Structures are given as C-alpha cells and as structure tokens.
C-alpha cells in the first residue's frame, strides 16, 4: 500500500527565513474561563516543551460580543514580560483588521494603529508574522499593501499573512505587496474540506504560502461527533488512530499535515496535556487509501 511521507518536525514559513514547528498552538479561546497570566504561562510552556514553537493569536481574541478585545494578547504579553527569554523560543503570529462593532477595517490608518496596539499589548518590539484576519471589501489592496510594506520596513512585522481570503483576494494583495505573503489561514479540518478542491491550497503551493489550518478539529466537533457525517469522518480517522496508537484528534492533525501543501494545523485546545499530545501527529503515517477514506467520508459521496 502506498504510504505518504511523515511530516517533517519543522517547516519553513512560506519563503520567509522562519523555521517553525509543523504544528502550531492558537489562543483564540485563551481569555475564556477567567484564565490568568499564570495559567497562560503553563500553556505556553506546555507548547514549547512539546516542541510546538509556533504560536498564533489575534487582537480580537477575548472579545465576547461587548468587551474583551485584546485580552488574549494582553495575557501573552504578561507572560512574555515576566519571562523575556520565551520570546526567542517562539515564532509569534498575530492578526488584526476586525474592529468591533464594525465588521472589518483595513484602511491604512486603522491598520497602522492596530499593529502598534498589538505590539503594546504583547509587550514586544516586533511580531514575526502579522496576518489580516478577514478581508475588508472596502479596502483597496494597494492601500493595504502600502501600509503592510511600511510595517515590514520599520521592523515591526517580520512577515505577512492573510486569513479567510479567497484566492483572488490573495492574488490581488500579493500583486501590490513588495514583501510577499508567506502564509494563508483558512478553516481546514476533516470536516471542512472545501479548500482541497476549490483552488485555495493549489494557489498556496503555487505562491509558496504555508497554509495554517484554523479549527483543525472543527471547533472540537471531531472529538464528540453528533451528526451521521461527523460520525463517519470520526470512524475513518479512528481506523488509523487505533492502528497507530494515537487519539482521533492526533490522527486528525496528521491527516491535514499529510497534504503536500505543508499544512500547519493550529491546535485550539487550552489544556496543557492536549496541547502537548498534538506533537504526536509527527509520528502518524498515512496510506493513500486511508487518507482518501477520510476525504470520502467527509464528502459523503464516493470519488468520481
Ligand atoms: P479546534 O482544535 O478545532 O477546537 C478546539 C476546541 O476543541 C477546544 O474548545 C477544545 O477544548 C476542544 N476539544 C475537545 N476535545 C478535544 C481534544 N481531545 N483535543 C483537543 N481539543 C479538544 O480549534 P479552534 O480552537 O476552533 O481553533 C484553533 C485555532 O485556530 C485558534 O486558537 C486560532 O488560533 C485559530 N482560529 C483562527 C480563525 C481565523 O479566522 N483566522 C478562526 C478560528 C480559529 P479544550 O480547550 O478543553 O481542550
């Protein structure tokens, strides 16, 4: 049976100089449940100690509909201020461009201020990867590119990425950028398979963008599947998980990592043991047959 290669321990972030762990940890849910800086420090250490050196946050993480904007960055900033040596052990990614109650804002003025504000909250001089969180249809990509290029030139941002952009939006922004995009961050999971066939991953490979998969467990749905489709996908993952002695969630991360675009799943758990467990995804080997069995379960119809 034809086996797919094991994922490498690290991957280069697009065409940048950054070498990152091939699985990341994300902080969308960090500022929930009254978590403190001490709790955050434990999670950061759990990730780093497991070899997960790529950390993803955003200015809006913590926002609960009325307040909390910036709270996840503030928590991480407190940890970085208390233990400055941690900064050098991670590749730090954040995002901006969603301004509640406005939906999205990528005007030059807003982006300039948003980047400054993230640096202040994170208590750092620069972030390694800065991503536009969602496309602002009212921003001209040339204006957005100009402000992002300026931020890179000033050293405040080292590399650029986008999230939730269509291939055409990526192409338009990249056209105007001097410092080209190195990442794209769509939702990808065994339950969210659109990008395998809609051109997003093909474009990423063509442009040399590293795809970062958000909600790789579909927000936890894969851990507790309810619908017939979710259960069928979980069962197809379980075949490989059981044969290789890993959990279903680890099998789900590794399924994404087996794709040739070099997808980096972003673990969403805020539980230290589950974050560390994610590193086991490096050990899972997929055959073509098993990989396609998960895809077919998610499609719900056989391949043509
Ligand atoms: P996910 O991995 O799909 O879901 C994580 C959720 O599943 C957590 O609530 C976790 O709870 C739960 N879970 C239940 N059983 C689990 C298990 N056995 N192992 C691991 N988790 C389990 O990821 P996500 O949180 O939705 O998203 C991941 C990251 O993607 C975010 O942190 C963020 O960085 C990024 N993201 C980006 C966007 C965007 O628009 N760019 C949108 C959403 C997310 P516990 O914490 O209790 O383990």
Instruction: Tell me the strand order in the biggest sheet.
Output: 3-4-5-6-7-8-9-10
CATH superfamily heading: NADP-dependent oxidoreductase domain
Overall mean pLDDT: 97
How far apart are the first and last residues' alpha carbons, in Å?
Answer: 21 Å
Fraction in helix:
25-40%
User: Which class in CATH terms?
Assistant: Alpha Beta
Structural key phrases:
304 residues; alpha/beta; TIM Barrel; eight-stranded parallel beta barrel; two-stranded antiparallel ribbon; 10 helices; binds NADP nicotinamide-adenine-dinucleotide phosphate
Quick recap:
With 304 residues, the chain is of the alpha/beta class. The chain contains ten helices and ten strands. 38% of the residues lie in helices and 14% in strands.
Secondary structure topology:
Elements: E1 10-12, E2 19-21, E3 24-26, H1 37-49, E4 54-56, H2 71-82, E5 91-96, H3 108-122, E6 127-132, H4 141-153, E7 157-163, H5 167-176, E8 181-185, H6 200-207, E9 210-213, H7 228-244, H8 248-257, E10 264-267, H9 272-277, H10 288-299
Parallel strand pairs: 3-4, 3-10, 4-5, 5-6, 6-7, 7-8, 8-9, 9-10
Antiparallel strand pairs: 1-2
Helix pairs in contact: 1-2, 2-3, 3-4, 4-5, 7-8, 7-10
The protein binds NADP nicotinamide-adenine-dinucleotide phosphate.
NADP nicotinamide-adenine-dinucleotide phosphate is lined by residues 26-29, 56, 133, 163-164, 185, 214-220, 223, 249, 266-271, 274.
């Amino acid at each position: 049976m034809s086996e797919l290669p094991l994922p490498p321990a690290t991957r280069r972030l697009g065409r940048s100089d950054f070498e990152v762990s091939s699985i990341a940890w994300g902080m969308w849910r960090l500022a929930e449940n009254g978590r403190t800086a001490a709790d955050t420090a434990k999670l950061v250490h759990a990730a780093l100690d497991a070899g997960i050196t790529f950390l993803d946050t955003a200015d809006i993480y913590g926002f609960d509909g009325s307040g909390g904007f910036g709270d996840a960055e503030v928590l991480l900033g407190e940890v970085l201020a208390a233990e400055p040596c941690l900064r050098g052990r991670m590749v730090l990614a954040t995002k901006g461009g969603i301004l509640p109650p406005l939906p999205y804002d990528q005007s030059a003025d807003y982006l300039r201020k948003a980047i400054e504000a993230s640096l202040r909250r994170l208590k750092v001089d620069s972030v390694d990867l800065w991503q536009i969180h969602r496309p602002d249809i009212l921003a001209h990509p040339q204006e957005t590119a100009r402000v992002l290029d300026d931020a890179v030139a000033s050293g405040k941002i080292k590399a650029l990425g986008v999230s939730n952009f269509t291939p055409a939006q990526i192409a338009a922004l990249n056209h105007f950028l001097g410092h080209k995009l190195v990442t794209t961050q769509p939702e990808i999971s065994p339950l969210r398979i659109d990008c395998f066939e809609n051109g997003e991953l093909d474009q990423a490979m063509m442009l040399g963008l590293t795809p970062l998969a958000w909600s790789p467990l579909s927000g936890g749905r894969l851990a507790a599947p309810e619908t017939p489709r979710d259960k069928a996908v979980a069962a197809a993952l379980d075949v490989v998980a059981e044969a290789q002695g890993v959990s279903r969630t680890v099998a789900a991360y590794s399924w994404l990592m087996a794709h040739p675009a070099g997808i980096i799943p972003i673990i969403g758990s805020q539980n230290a043991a589950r974050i560390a467990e994610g590193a086991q995804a490096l050990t899972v080997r997929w055959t073509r047959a098993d990989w396609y069995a998960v895809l077919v379960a998610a499609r719900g119809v056989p391949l043509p």
